[in-house]
From TrEMBL:
Keyword Membrane: yes
Keyword Transmembrane: yes
Record Pfam families: Sulf_transp (PF04143)
Matching InterPro entries: Seleno_YedE, Sulf_transp_TsuA/YedE
Alphabetical UniProt keywords: Membrane, Transmembrane, Transmembrane helix
Residue spans crossing the bilayer: 7-25, 60-77, 89-111, 117-135, 156-178, 184-204, 225-244, 264-285, 297-318, 330-347
Name the UniProt record assigns to this protein: Uncharacterized protein
Amino acid sequence: MNDKRKMFIYGGIIGLIGAILMKFGNPGNMGICVACFYRDIAGALGLHRAEIVQYIRPEIIGFILGAFIISIAKGDFKSRGGSSPLIRFFLGFFLVIGALVFLGCPLRMILRLANGDLNALIGLLGYLVGIFIGIQFLKKGYTLGKSVKQPKFSGYIMPIVAVTLLIFLIVKPDFIFFSEEGPGSMRAPIVLSLVLGMIVGIVLQRSRICTAGAFRDIMLIKDYHFFWGILGIFVVNLIANLILNFDSFNLGFENQPVAHPIHLWNFMGMVLTGICSILLGGCPVRQTILASEGDADAGITVLGITIGAAFAHNFGLASSPKGVTSNGKVSVIIGIIVVLMIAYSVVKESNQVNS
């Protein structure tokens, strides 16, 4: 089997699972959304009190455990880290703010588009612009440094967190919050979500699919290897939606689930997400998989994403179907300025070291 077909199939599995999860109860056009799912988990843990988005998403638990188990089995697991962790935290923080102004991570952007939401096309254009901007810094020598070997236990922290969250999900202690209405109350059965999440985690770990990496490689080195995976996600999700979720398929900009039609901020939110994804070396789903196979730097990024998602809801930065908040608009502009300053300073210091 050639690489293109293999990557397409890998992506197709993810696209199919996204449609199945939506069919069995996940929110509209949100069979999978890494940013939204971390936001829901943050709410369940009480890090924010937006009652409509609080739930321990078993899909995230599945991503982590699936990627962890297969990385151990295939010899890919390796505890490493120490590459500018604080910068990575804040890049993850601003990445999710951009995503929540758009209302979706880059993977959900593709799934939204495959179910007819043309607002996601505006988001995609913004994402591509953000990736292009990030690439300019890569060309000038941007790097967060090399990771080094870490104690073995460091690599086990993410799987331990995932198991702890699973226990909380099953036991439902009083200090964990669960939405009774809104997107957080819309969920596929736990076992189905967990099993399908593990399959996605395995597929992502083996394929190395990354939305930012796919478009970066096209722009930077004209390599379409990972793009075939992205194409597989889109095509199979589109076909699966037309079969499984035809009643919800809606081609257009208006009346899309958990989305808004304000083009400027759909675009700008994903510009910020695109820049951060390139500066981090991977989109949110890729960071999750890396963290699951022992990468503490990706783990710090995931922590930044989770805290950023909580911050977005505590301070009124996240959008809603009603539109974009003033705080959200300001936060995107501030985020773009901050991450560009980070990138510029890293490049400047790198050039001074090499000169």
